[in-house]
Amino acid sequence: LVRRRGTVACRAVASSIDASLVVVVHGGGASNISADRKERVREGIAKAATEGYNTLKAGGSAVDAVERAVIVLENDPEFNAGCGSVLNVKGDVEMDASIMDGRDLSAGAVSAVRCVENPIKLARLVMEKTPHCFLTGHGAEKFAADVGIPEIPVEKLITERNKKHLEKEKLEKGAQKADCPKNSGTVGAVALDCKGNLAYATSTGGIVNKMVGRVGDSPCIGAGGYADNNLGAVSTTGHGESILKVNLARLALFHIEQGKTVDEAAELALNYMKSKVKGLGGLILVSKTGDWVAKWTSASMPWAAVKNGKLQAGIDLCETKTRDLP
Ligand SMILES: NC(=O)C[C@H](N)C(=O)O
């Protein structure tokens, strides 16, 4: 009964403050997405945002919401994270992920992990069950085993599309350039819950044809994302080396700290990265007041946002679709 009363109370509160709940997700800064993939990408991104929002509506925290949204995208082979991760120079998968709780700045990250289905779950466990913020490679995988996350064969994460992508990349050698937005598909989410807590999660297979052991921006707090209840939450995507150099997520929040709007902050941070190191990318940002933005300098970036029970989603600059959630 107590539990039920607790749940009912939470629902009652939630219904009057549903308006304050926000979830935004991205599916990675990208070059043009082919017409046959567009529909699948659009569906995947909408499903992730809906999952995050429903988690908040059911009383889940911002951290729960971003984790759940990112798991949906890690499990979708259309995106470069979890199953569907791009391949390194050896044809292997090495994944990076991070998560942060804006309440107290607690953070968890893993890098270069190979045989786990959902790196974002592992990142959250690093945050909650270790005295550290960041575990890498074998240590991260040993920790996964210790906390009961099953080891899966790496083949389960590899798709035919990514095998072809690697072959093509070896011939063209373009994807590692800062201004070449081929490294598509990294996923991320930001959320604001009914208690005013903010969180972000980012997960990726990195960049195709990368060196073994290369770590990008996605697991690095301040680059791949940041969340602070006093400011906002950000998840980034794009050329990892450029994002690391400018600390893109924290840079965007610095502009919020300076009084800029979410739109101005995103624009200033992305333009700085472009002009300073020629890096292309994108980001999603939600402020502590629930204003949000999705912005990119790459050709496109699949995104979806839910606020006030309305789902908005888009891939290219010219189109945004809106629908009511049931
Ligand atoms: N698509 C991406 O966002 C790639 C990721 N930022 C990385 O460089 O690892």
UniProtKB/TrEMBL annotation:
GO terms for molecular function: asparaginase activity; beta-aspartyl-peptidase activity. Substrate binds at R214, V215, G216, D217, T237, G238, H239, G240. The keyword Ligase does not apply. Keywords: Autocatalytic cleavage, Hydrolase, Protease. GO terms for biological process: L-asparagine catabolic process via L-aspartate; proteolysis. InterPro entries: ASRGL1_meta (IPR033844), Ntn_hydrolases_N (IPR029055), Peptidase_T2 (IPR000246). One of its GO terms (cellular component) is photoreceptor inner segment. This is Isoaspartyl peptidase/L-asparaginase. It comes from Peromyscus maniculatus bairdii (Prairie deer mouse).
